[in-house]
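Worked example 3 (structure in, sequence out).
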């Protein structure tokens, strides 16, 4: 067993199979309760909270400021990674439980929601405010932050990036922005990161795909001043870095090397150096915030200091994964259930409402070696000037063969 079973790929196969079937699984919620719950933000945390609250029988209303639901899954993750038809089908499954969705409906006053009869509120507004570089010239036309760039592209706004694009940063947003720029027609895309490759927060497989697509990655390089011409940014000064003592993040601190400056010609600069929650509209409502603007909450219940109001996801954690946001949504839903007098037990519709198949086990098969089946991907030649999905999913035969690699460690006999 040289590599683990491809759990993510197998889960995707099961989800694809169900979604494309004539009779997809729709869980049955508990009998309807009287207490209404408001969820502010229809991203992964908010949608998950709405799902579990609806299963418990609560009438849930989702308020979303954007014209689309999904949060960062819809306006942050590019479509070549998460096709909108897949995301929208998942959202539709949640709405079928009786959840009401109100788009283009920003909420800034929690008291107003309570006045409408909502007995509890979950704030899941994400972290959609991109950070600035803090260098001269970043106000020039053509200098964008990664969060805004990806949001505009995903919302279908016309974006011209020119031929040469520089992306600053080393996280998944930087990789997504670079690969998106390539699909928008850029001829040359470069990523500049101030630390080493092994320090990049981005997923290793995403970095590998970016390199495969021809994106150049430069390490130990940081941006400096930018200059414009013909109405937009045209040149960027860079400095080479060296790593010194460890900083608060546990990584070595990058320090500029004197006299190492050099310039690059660019048409667009995308700064993907982080993002923070935009919670300014909630100031003065009795909430507490940390220095980044994130809500301070009880770590066990996600309750804020305001009775009946909970918060979770990126507006508490800071930018994190969709899975972590979903975990917060689940935790908040059960805390709200307890707050409203319920038992706080998490419903599991797949366990309770689906019947599994008994599987026979061939112990001799454990001795056979089966290499992991790699996810099929779109050929490189088909990835440019479009947003076709790159990871194509297992076929039924591939899924069965990969599942056979399981050693059934969980079995008690």
């Amino acid at each position: 067993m040289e590599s683990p079973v491809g759990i993510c790929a197998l889960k995707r196969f099961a989800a694809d199979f169900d979604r494309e079937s004539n009779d997809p699984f729709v869980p049955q919620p508990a009998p309807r309760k009287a207490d209404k719950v408001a969820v502010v933000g229809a991203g992964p945390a908010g949608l998950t909270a709405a799902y579990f609250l609806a299963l418990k029988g609560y009438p849930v209303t989702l308020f979303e400021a954007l014209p689309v639901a999904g949060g960062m899954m819809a306006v942050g993750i590019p479509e070549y990674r998460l096709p909108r038809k897949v995301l929208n089908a998942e959202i539709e499954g949640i709405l079928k439980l009786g959840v009401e969705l109100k788009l283009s409906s920003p909420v800034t006053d929690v008291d107003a929601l309570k006045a409408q009869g909502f007995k509890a509120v979950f704030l899941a507004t994400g972290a959609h405010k991109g950070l600035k570089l803090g260098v001269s010239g970043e106000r020039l036309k053509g200098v964008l932050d990664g969060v805004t760039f990806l949001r505009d592209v995903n919302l279908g706004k016309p974006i011209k990036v020119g031929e040469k694009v520089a992306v600053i940063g080393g996280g998944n947003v930087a990789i997504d922005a670079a690969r998106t720029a390539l699909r928008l027609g850029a001829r040359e895309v470069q990523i500049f990161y101030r630390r080493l490759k092994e320090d990049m927060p981005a997923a290793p497989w995403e970095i590998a795909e970016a390199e495969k697509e021809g994106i150049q990655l430069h390490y130990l390089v940081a941006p400096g001043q930018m200059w414009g011409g013909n109405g937009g940014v045209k040149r960027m000064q860079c400095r080479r870095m060296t790593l010194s003592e460890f900083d608060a993040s546990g990584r070595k601190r990058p320090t500029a090397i004197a006299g190492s400056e050099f310039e690059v010609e660019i048409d667009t600069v995308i700064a993907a150096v982080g993002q923070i929650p935009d919670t300014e509209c909630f100031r003065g409502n009795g909430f507490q915030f940390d220095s980044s603007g994130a809500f301070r909450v009880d770590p066990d219940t996600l309750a804020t200091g305001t009775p009946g109001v909970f918060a979770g996801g990126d507006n508490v954690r800071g930018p994190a994964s969709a899975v972590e946001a979903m975990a917060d949504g689940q935790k908040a839903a059960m805390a709200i259930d307890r707050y409203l007098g319920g038992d706080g037990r998490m419903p599991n519709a797949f366990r309770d409402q689906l019947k599994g198949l008994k599987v026979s086990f061939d112990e001799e098969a454990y001795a056979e070696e089966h290499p992991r089946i790699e996810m099929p991907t779109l050929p490189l030649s088909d990835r440019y000037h479009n947003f076709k999905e790159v990871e194509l999913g297992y076929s039924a035969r591939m899924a069965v063969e990969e599942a056979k690699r399981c050693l059934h460690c969980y079995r008690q006999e």
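Notes: Residues 362 and 375 are 26 Å apart (CA to CA). The two ends are 21 Å apart (CA to CA).
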